Amino acid sequence: MRNIIVQKYGGSSVTNTERIQNIAGRIIKYKRRGYRMVVVVSALGDTTDELIKLSRSITKVPSEREHDMLVSTGEQVSVALLAMAIHKLGEEAISFTGAQVGIRTDSAYTKARIIDVNADKIEKELAAGKVVIVAGFQGVTTNHDITTLGRGGSDTSAVALAKALNAKECEIYTDVDGIYTADPRIVRSARKLDRISYEEMLELASLGAQVMHPRSIEMASKFKIPLHVRSSFNNKKGTVISGEVKMMEKVLVSSVTVNKEEAKVTICDCPDKPGIAARIFKKIAEENINIDMIIQNISRTKARNTDVSFTVQKDELGKTIKTAKEISRSIGAKGVTFDSNIAKVSVIGIGMRAHAGVAAKMFSALAGKKINIEMISTSEIKISCVIAKKNAEKAVKALHKAFKLGRKK
Amino acid sequence: MRNIIVQKYGGSSVTNTERIQNIAGRIIKYKRRGYRMVVVVSALGDTTDELIKLSRSITKVPSEREHDMLVSTGEQVSVALLAMAIHKLGEEAISFTGAQVGIRTDSAYTKARIIDVNADKIEKELAAGKVVIVAGFQGVTTNHDITTLGRGGSDTSAVALAKALNAKECEIYTDVDGIYTADPRIVRSARKLDRISYEEMLELASLGAQVMHPRSIEMASKFKIPLHVRSSFNNKKGTVISGEVKMMEKVLVSSVTVNKEEAKVTICDCPDKPGIAARIFKKIAEENINIDMIIQNISRTKARNTDVSFTVQKDELGKTIKTAKEISRSIGAKGVTFDSNIAKVSVIGIGMRAHAGVAAKMFSALAGKKINIEMISTSEIKISCVIAKKNAEKAVKALHKAFKLGRKK
Fold first, then answer.
1. Mutate to test the interface with B, among A51, A69, A75, A137 (most CBs of B within 10 A)
2. CB count in 10 Å sphere of residue B40
3. What is the CATH architecture assignment of A4-175?
4. Phi, psi dihedrals of residue A207, rounded to the nearest 5°
C-alpha cells in the first residue's frame, strides 16, 4: 500500500480564510508524519449559491455549459487560497483545477460523470514533495469544456483521485463527527458508528443523510476504497465506510433516518387495465421527474379501479401535479390529490438480509405509538415507511429504541 | 478585410448583472448587422480587488502562481454571465477561459506576456454563428498553468485576439467617451480627440492616463490594429487610435496630462567619479524599483560633487528611501532627501517631432504662471516637467490654453 492519503474538505470546512488556515495546519501534520497528501476542496461556504444567485438575476434557465463555467470558479478560489495557506506555514503546495489535473468527464453538464483521471501530473508534484490540492466538484470534457459533477460532487472527485493514485485512505472531512445511528438532534442517545458498510451508507445517503454523495459511495464500493468520514473541527476518529465485515453481521439494523423532503401524489380511480402504470410512469419520466416510492391500491370507491400513489421531491411537486393531471385526463382517472405533510422513516442494516422479522418489529414499534403507515417500500437492507409528518420525530425515537441503537448506559 | 469585430468591456462596463445585460444588447445589435463578434470581458466591478483581499487575509506575499489561479476566476465569472445574458436575448454565445481558447503566455505569473493565440477554436464557433466570449487578463503556459497579464491586461487580450483573427476593428469599451486633450475634471474646455496615434497614446498611457494598458497599445501599433476607445454607456463615437495620419501633422501637441503618483528622491553630494551613477542605478534595479525620470546636477554645496535625483511611484517610496540610504553610505554621499508633493505635467504630440519650439512654449507657459520647474525629461513626442503638486491644476490649464487644445468657441 502506498503512503498517499486523499483528504476532502467540504464547504463547511472552508467557510472562511481562518478555517482554511486551520485545515492547512492539519494537512501539514499529516505530511510531516511522512504521508504524501492530495487534498480535494469544495467552494468556500455559500459561494456556489451566491454564484447561482448571480446567474438567476440574468436568466431562470441558464445554459448548463455556462452554469458549469460559472460555478466551477468557486472551487478554483478555494484551492488557490489553501495552497497559499500551506505556503505560509512553510510547506510546498500546488493547486490544480479539475481540468489541469485531467479529471475527464462526459459532457452531461451540471451532473457529469468521471470517465478517468490522469494521475501523472499529481504523481510528479507529489514526488517533488508538494501537497497537491485539487478543485473538487469539477472536471473537463475531451473537448476542454468545464463540467461539474452535481451537488456533493467533491466527494466523487476525492474517491476518483484515491482510486487513480491507489491511495492508502480517503478521508472525508465535514462538520459532524461521523455517521450516527440516528440524527442526534432528534434522538439524544444516538451513537456514532465506528464502521458502516458501503451498502448501508448508500441507503443512508439516498434517504437524505446529507453527509455524503451517493455516487461517491458507489464508486468507493466498486473499487474497495475505505472512506473515513470525520470532522474537520476536532481530531476524533469518525466512521469508516468499507466492505461488509464479520462484525456487522450481528447487528440487525445500524441506523434510523427520516426524510421530510418528499410529497405524495395520488392519481385516483385509474381504470385497472394492463399498461396503465406503464403509461403513467413513462410520461413522468419524460418530464424528468424523479419518483421515489410507488404503490398501487384497489380503489375504495369503485371496484376494478385503482389508486396509484408515488412520492417525489417537494421542489418538484408543482411540476408533478401538473403532469399527473394531464395523465389523469388522458387515462380517464378521476383526478389528482397530493399531500406534502409526510415523512419517510427508514431503518437500514446489512443484518436484515439474514434475519427475518425486522419489518414486523418496525411496524409494531410504529403501531405501539399509534402511528399510521401510509406507504411501505423495502430493499434488501432497508425498510421505509411513509407516515404523517407530525409523527416523524416520535417514530424515529421509537425505532431507535426498538432496535437498541442507543449508547450503552 | 474580414467582418470580425473584437470588443473589450472593462470592469466599469460590467459592474453588475444589469450592466451585463445592457452589453449583451449592444453585442447583439452588432451581430444582427452581420458582424462576427468576439468579446473580451474583465472581472465584475471590484471582484479582482476582493479576491486579492481574501488572499491578503492569508498571506502578505502569496505565491504568484496561486495568485493568478485565484484572480483569474473573476473573468471566468464574467464570461459565463455574459453568455447567459446573450442566450436570454435569443442569440447563441459561448464563453471560454484564456486557457481554453489557447492564449499561450510565458510563465511570468502576474505579468505574463502573450506568446501566441490559437484562433482555431474561436473560428469554429464563429462559423457556427455564435458570439465568442473570452476571459480577458488571462492566459496559460505550455505547462497548462494559468497566468494573468497584469493590470489592464484585458486590453492586451483583446488586441492579441484582434491580431490572431485578423479582425476589422478592435473596440475598447470604458466609462469615458474617449481620449481627451486633458482631464475634463481639471480643464473644462478639454476636447475629445477623434484620432490619436499609437505613439501619442503610448506616452499618454505611460504618463498615467488610466484608459488603456501600455502593452496593448504597443501590440496594436506593432500589428497596425486600429483601436476604438469609447463608452459602453452611450453610442457616441470615441477616439480611434491608429498609425500616424496626415491630419495629425498639423497639430503640435494633442494633449496635456498630469501624474501625481510619483515622488522625488535625491542622493545628495555624491562624489563625482565615473561609475557612480551606474552603481546607484544597478543597486536600485536589483531591488526591482522602477525609476521614471533621472537628473544629475552639480551640487550646490561642494564643487566636484553632484546631486542625483530620480522619481519613483509613491507606493515604492519607503523601499526606495531605504535602498537610497544604503547606496548613500556605500558611495560616501551625504544623505538622502525626498519629496512626495510633486506632480509631473506633460505635453504629448507627434507634431513636435517636426517642429522646434514646443519645449520653449511649454516652459514659458509655466513661467507665465510663476511655476518653478524642478526636473525635465523629454522623448521624441513628449515633454514632461516635475513641478510642485500644489501647482498641478494651474499648470495643466495653462498648457492646455497655450497649445490651443480647447473646444472651438
1. A69
2. 31
3. 3-Layer(aba) Sandwich (3.40)
4. -85, 5
Residues in chain A with CB shorter than 8 Å from the CB of B58 are 17, 20-21, 81, 84-85, 88
| Closest alpha carbon within chain A to B20 | A58
State the helix-helix crossing angle for A392-402 and A358-368, rounded to 10 degrees.
130
Distance CA B333, CA A283 (A): 90
List, for residues A184-207, the tens digit of each pLDDT value.
888 999 999 999 999 889 888 777
Cell numbers describing residue A111: 451532473
Q: What is the pLDDT of residues B392-401, one digit of tens each?
A: 999 999 999 9
Domain residue extents for chain A: 4-175
CA distance A385 to chain B (A): 43
Residues of B in contact with A79 (CB under 8 A): 69
Complex ipTM value: 0.81
Interface test with B, best of A22, A72, A81, A110 (most B CBs within 10 A): A81
**Residue of chain B minimizing CA distance to A82:** B58
> Strand order in A335-339's β-sheet?
A291-298, A305-313, A262-271, A335-339
CA distance to B199, B201, B214, B388, per residue, from B206 (Å)? 11, 8, 6, 20
**DSSP H helix total and E strand total for chain A:** 11, 20
Using a 10 angstrom Cβ sphere, with 0-12 exposed, 13-18 middle and 19 or more buried, the burial of residue A8 is buried
- Provide the β-strand partners of residue B396: none
Which of these, A287, A310, A316, A7, lies nearest to A131 by C-alpha position?
A7
The model carries a pTM of: 0.83
B70 → closest Cβ in A62, A70, A77: A77
Write the pLDDT tens digit of every residue in A105-164. 999 999 899 999 999 999 999 999 999 999 999 999 999 999 999 877 999 999 999 999
Say yes or no for a CB contact (<8 Å) between A73 and B77: yes
The Cα angle at residue B341 between residues B335 and B343, in degrees rounded to 5: 115
Which residues in chain A have Cβ-Cβ distances shorter than 8 Å to B87? 59, 62-63, 66
Measured in angstroms, the CA of B82 and the nearest CA of chain A are apart by: 9
Q: B376 pairs with which residues across the strands?
A: B385
| Interatomic CA distance for residues B81 and B368, integer angstroms | 54
